[in-house]
Amino acid sequence: MKLFALAGNPNCGKTTLFNALTGSSAHVGNWPGVTVDKREGVYKDGGNYFKIVDLPGIYSLSPYTPEEVISRNFVLNEQVDGIINIVDATNLERNLYLTTQLLETDLPIIVALNMMDEVEKSGAVINVKALEAALGVPVVAISALKGNGIKELMKRAAALAEKRNGSTVLGGVFKAELDSARSFYKKAGVSSPLFHAVKLLEGDELELENSGAKAIYDELSLDCDAEAAIADERYKYITEKLAAAKIKSDSRTLTKSDKIDRILTHRVWAIPIFLAVMFFIFHLTFSENLFFLNGFTENHAWMPTLQELGLATDEGANNFGVEILAVFYDGAVFSPGVIFTNLLNLVLDRISDGVLTLMENGGAAEWATGLVGDGILGGIFAVMGFLPQILTLFLFFSILEDSGYMARIAFVLDRIFRRFGLSGRAFMPMIMGFGCSVPATVNTRTLSDEKERTATIRVIPFFSCGAKLPILTAVAGGIVAAFGVGNADVITYGMYVLGVCAAVVCVLLMRGTTLKGETPPFIMELPAYRMPSAKNLFLHLWDKAKHFVKKAFTIIFASTVIIWLFSHLNFNWKFLPDEQMNQSILASIGMFIQPLFTPLGFGVQLGQFGWVFAVAAITGLVAKENVIATFTTLALCIGAYAGEGTEEGVEELAGLINVISADTGIARGQFIAALLAFIAFNMTTIPCFAACATAKAELQKGKFKYTLLFWVAASFTIGAAVYTVGSWWWTLFIWIAAAAGVAVPVILRNTGKYDILKIFKRKKGGK
Ligand code: GDP
Ligand code: MG
Fold it and tell me: How far lies 463's CA from each of 36, 378, 494, 699, 754, in Å?
């Protein structure tokens, strides 16, 4: 099987072509630095199979960044049958710089001139034949996105000769030096001697590691900055030869981008606009009161509920028509995210009702209906019910990413990030964290500074992932339903913001103490604004949905069954009915750990049912979806005998809240604060197994145990702060004083003059 590697600048469309060739759905984003590792796939043409490798984007073959090293090593050391050099045709000059370096190797090369659809739209014309002549290798015009020219590209790639002789565009510059270096490599039997010779003249670190080459280099004693001279020469060649290839160019599209940028990256307005955009997204995903048409709070509500209209009773809708209406409206117009959720829940409810009726009619035992209804269907369906909102949120995020907007925000935020010790580059992994911590943690490889990278990996879980979203929505919804306060979407957005603020504070602290260091400069090329491609968006969502459903029916399924069993068995392995759940094995364990959470408000305060919270938090360590699956399962059982909240979704939690309120008589404000602390705790504590394993693999040796410790400490501190300040607002001053107590010595120490630790030591020493 022939092996082809895709090489090219960041953001030139390598992954798009890779997906088109191999039918995979690797992440494509309008953002340089999405692909950080190589990826393999197979392309099939008739009976011929080709192995295709997608490489991280690179600007040159010099070993400056980890991506460049990965790509360079792959190109030079693997036995490839050809390099498909992808070139962004809308940005020919810069992209061909890498091409001129690839030409110096002996590898068979074919140039794929990508984004031709955009070139055509802009009115420019590129003479492919002239370019081919200037470069001396085949050039094929394609559009990876539209799928044009791909077959032709692969046909010509398959027909490439086995070996080429490297050619250079350097002309007569350094001719003598180049010849002697080249003959050295030739004699040494190295492949691509010309390439290595040029690199040696550039004073490339990797070449100088070879002592023979080092001797030659010293002997040549180049008296000028050869690297700069060579780069100049490459650009000169590119501009001269391009004049022949590029016939007419029109900068119409560019000015449009510039105009948009003038607003979206405005010095003052960029950040408020970004926050507003984010809020709008959350509103469209979570709001049960679209555009606040029904007033901002309950007190201002004026739209009648279905019950007030006489269309529904406590029991539910009067007929199927009203049930459908309730998907869209009940006392307020719902947002698209909520509408999709309602639709799905309508179906899921039918299914579980049907199954339970069947079982009851068939005379199934109580434990069996309990296990299936509360344990299996309750848990899995509760989690599944959040899929529409997760997908809605991701659709919006993907649009922002694919359009090129997110890349701008990284730039805008760089100014702010710098103040707390991160570069704008850290923004991408953080935003990815909203999806899933696992790829986000891997993506931190684009951060060249190890300390910056460690700090980023540690706070990534604070960017609440898709699996934590059900916790936020369900608890927020439970608060609104049980206490009739606030808006679910405002609470949800607020908790996301809290997570981001916590991340900022923690990074500041780490960069001031254990992870001190310079913040590397942030240089990134802004991608062009692009219309997000429907196919890309669909692929993103499909991937997410597949992953989520698979998890629901495997990990979550197993976990809920275990939870249900242990909540209905006592230590004598006797089956307990719902009413005696408090004597179960699970309850005993939960009650044992419950006091741990007392400072966070969901410990002993919540009385005999409070253990449910402790158990939910612990099951979340396996997978965060478990938190709500556990809740729902246990709340259904508690609700079943307490006679409350036996309906689907959010109501289960509201039911549990009502039961606990009645049981303990806890003050309303204090309970709300405890519930918010519960969200905050789950958001910032140790992430799921998968995320932990990834963090362990990506962190430097020995750093993982401190990272675990950090997560535990952070989540307890943040949870306690939310609970105490929410319950007794004046404790805010105590927290501020405590924060100052930490910050002031750190700042003094870092300014160098007043190291409190040293002053203290000196005093003790008596001097
Ligand atoms: P990579 O960084 O080189 O892997 O680039 P990606 O494959 O992630 O693509 C970067 C951006 O370019 C994405 O927004 C793609 O949708 C877009 N893109 C890729 N190929 C084409 C193309 O042929 N035409 C257009 N208009 N956009 C493309
Ligand atoms: Mg890529």
Answer: 21, 27, 12, 18, 35
